[in-house]
From TrEMBL:
Gene3D superfamilies named among the record's database cross-references: 3.30.420.40
Textual note on the cofactor: Binds 1 Fe(2+) ion per subunit.
Enzyme class per UniProt: transferase
GO MF annotation, one: iron ion binding
Keywords for the protein's UniProt record, in alphabetical order: Acyltransferase, Cytoplasm, Iron, Metal-binding, Transferase, tRNA processing
Protein name: tRNA N6-adenosine threonylcarbamoyltransferase
The encoding gene: tsaD
Length: 351
């Protein structure tokens, strides 16, 4: 198994990539639907799936042309099979299975969060097993013990809103444009870190689970109280954004340090859209280094949804002889601990 085409259509980004086990990532492209959904303030599932129908095949042609690769040079097809929006997943699954059947090659349905988890392995230097992974995005916040590909144990996860979801909802409270997370982080750069102090939820008790809904409510109440005052509204919004961001970042850092201590591991990887947050990276690097550990991240382009992570994760599973039948169905919900173990773990980390 040399070259794998990866297709990502789990939500509102169409990602296509080709991974080659001898060359690494040879070509990729991502089409974002942000302009479509911005007018609604969030992702509209039906519009997302319709746009995947329009964009996926042209993007595949574009990536293959850029790589100078014909269909006969593709050895396998990987597609996101879950979790995600069912309509969006159906587009990638149907197209991925159809292409694999037409080209006479095997295909594999990839778990979206496993794709994120393995994305840092595309970088140099890549983390060695075992490690703890913080998967932090709009839909998930999870701490995972990772002993190999498919050897996963969930250490903790959000009991309500994911961190990225809390970012987006708080951004909406602050009247920031969609997508809210990056807009809130940008506004927080102008904020005074000493003016407000938000709680660090669930850090005063044992365990590795998260909860961000109460923090979002705290932000809402602060906005209602403070913006009713005649003070500088723009600066107040920035100060609230900074306090919220600091609270989320500190919470994630505290839980990650706790997870490394409990497992005895020295390596931490961060992946998912929120892992691109600059303040999170800076504080996490400092805290983990102070404990004698190491932190790893994917490049910024591979933090958000992309086809490269799907192609790479798919390559490992296809190379181990795993594949899906023609009638394979996507899964809106899919526990990562249920994934099969990849026993042939000769990792290729070219990126």
């Amino acid at each position: 198994m040399r070259r794998v085409l990866g297709i990502e259509t789990s939500c509102d980004e169409t990602g296509i990539a080709i991974y080659d086990c001898t060359q690494g990532l040879v070509a990729q492209a991502v089409y974002s639907q942000v302009p479509i959904h911005a007018q609604y303030g969030g992702v509209v599932p039906e519009l997302a799936s319709r746009d995947h129908v329009r964009k996926t095949l042209p993007l595949i042609r574009q990536v293959m042309e850029e790589a100078g690769i014909e269909p006969g040079a593709i050895d396998g097809v990987a597609f996101t099979a879950g979790p995600g929006l069912m309509g969006a997943l159906l587009v990638g699954t149907a197209l991925g299975r159809s292409l694999a059947w037409a080209w006479g090659v095997p295909s594999i349905g990839v778990h979206h969060m496993e794709g994120h988890l393995l994305a840092p392995l595309l970088e140099e230097p890549a983390p060695a097993f075992p490690f703890v992974a913080l998967l932090v995005s709009g839909g998930h916040t999870q701490l995972v013990e990772v002993r190999g590909i498919g050897r996963y144990r969930i250490l903790g996860e959000s009991l309500d809103d994911a961190a990225g979801e809390a970012f987006d909802k708080t951004a909406k409270i602050l009247d920031l444009p969609y997508p809210g997370g990056p807009a809130l982080a940008q506004l927080a750069e102008r904020g005074d870190p000493t003016r407000f102090h938000f709680p660090r939820p669930m850090t005063d008790r044992p365990g590795l689970d998260f909860s961000f809904s109460g923090l979002k409510t705290f932000a809402l109440n602060t906005v209602r109280e403070q913006l009713a005052q005649p003070a500088d509204r723009d600066q107040t919004r920035a100060d609230i954004a900074r306090a919220f961001e600091d609270a989320v970042v500190d919470t994630l850092v505290i839980k990650c340090r706790r997870a490394l201590k409990e497992t005895g591991f020295q390596r931490l990887i961060l992946a998912g859209g929120v892992s691109a947050n600059r303040r999170l990276r800076a504080r996490m690097n400092e805290a983990i280094a102070a404990d004698g550990g190491e932190t790893y991240y994917p490049r910024l382009a591979l933090c958000t949804d992309n086809g490269a992570m799907i192609a790479y994760a798919g390559w490992h599973r296809l190379n181990a002889g795993q594949c899906e039948p023609l009638g394979f169905k996507p899964r809106a919900r899919w526990p990562m601990e249920s994934l099969a173990v990849v026993r042939d773990e000769g990792l290729v980390n070219s990126g």
